[in-house]
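Many introductory courses stop at the sequence. We go one step further.
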Amino acid sequence: MSTLIALARAQAADSGIAQPVSTVRHVHLAGRPLILVALTLAGEANAPLAVMTGEDPRHGRLLVVANPRNRDQRFEFAARLAEVVTGYIDRYRPATERVPAQRGGADRYRCADAPQLIVPNPAAVGFVRLLGRSTRFRRPDGEHPVGPAVPVLGRWLTFLAERAEVPGSCLMLAASQALSLHWASGQSAVEDLNLAALMGWIDPPAGLTGRQAAAAAEDPLAWPPAGPATDPTFDNEVLAQLIAACSRAAQNPHRYQAAVSDLEKALARQIAPTWKLMWRAVGLLRGLPPGDRVSIRWEADRDAFTSHVEHLRDGGPPQPRRDSAVAAARRLNSLERSQAIYAAQRAFDDPLVLAQYRLTGEAFGGIVTAAEPDRVDASGKRRKLRPLITVDTEDLLRVERTTRMLSPSRPVQKAEVISVATGRGARSRVVLELSGGMGRSLTAAPGSVPAVGERLCYTTLTDAYQPRGAFPDREDTPWTHGGPPPAYVPAGDEDAEDWS
């Protein structure tokens, strides 16, 4: 937690209302996201109990498993969920757009838009991951056959869960995380996982403070847990009896239907408050203007979605249970690069985020006190335009000579630290040499060099392309990491994998 976030939390606790920690929205919101609120049976390995899902706050579809311990009913539930989820995803597959070639390559095409799944919290992301893992290897024939849409659902859920690990990706969002990215509550980060409590701090009902609304949200009768775990009192006093009634009535269709109806009503009452909270959260996030670089990250999401669509179309195998050594190393390298780029993009888009780096010395802000816009460097074989500017700042500085920096207001222009001089008090004077973004002549284009009196920030963060790490091919995996992994061959026992 940064110093600025800690201060915002203290202010929220003192004022009784959540404090904004961003000036723009850092997540993409689809025009019609698919909301999914899930509940699982306590004591079982990711056994689905109920799901409410849909694209319209007025028409959520409730799917219930009358006996979550029954294997056949689990897969009937998965087939019904597949009808909703894959039907939603398939709408985004046909429309494509042309992406112009870069660096001498060929034009390519990608999906014009992509689906977006929004769940209440990180635990719900884990539910999606495990549900995908337990269904993507199932087969519509042989022993324990399932509906043909079930393995397709599993592969899509696995894809979405994997993308959720990528910093800045928005194909699947956890509402509590998205809200915490933009507001600081007066409670701990663990308590922020309670969606009702977090929303109480951010958007309390009339007449209540955020603290009072968050305290009221701890009542499981008024605000049942957002899932996938259920309230233990509800489990013991209500759910156990309703499931037992369904089991006892299994041989009598009329009684069974009545018992299932009672179960559905009880579960609907558990999910409905969270369902409404999810749409309120989406509305709050929509009220923030999107950051300039949010669209860039959504393009990366659409590229990933397009690749998976093509993988399925070409008959590619399902995602493996475990990554090979090379695949795992490549994925880790990709996540690290994505994290660095995401941090820089958020800072460039948002002064409040950049302020967090100013407090740690990774960025500084100040006023230009001197400028040499027409300075030319003639020390090399070719004369180059290299203006100098001097910036006075009172920020903490942890930069040294030759450090390369960027200004969010001029992202294509690079700045190299020539000298740092500390003056009286906390004031420092930084001399920077500029390159790029000023035209191709030896005279800087008007406005391309910061003028005296201009206030601006510089940071060591960069969202420039970072080359991928060098890794061996799959076939060249060294013996220290298990050697080359075997080729994928569907095994006869794949459908024996449990829901966990």
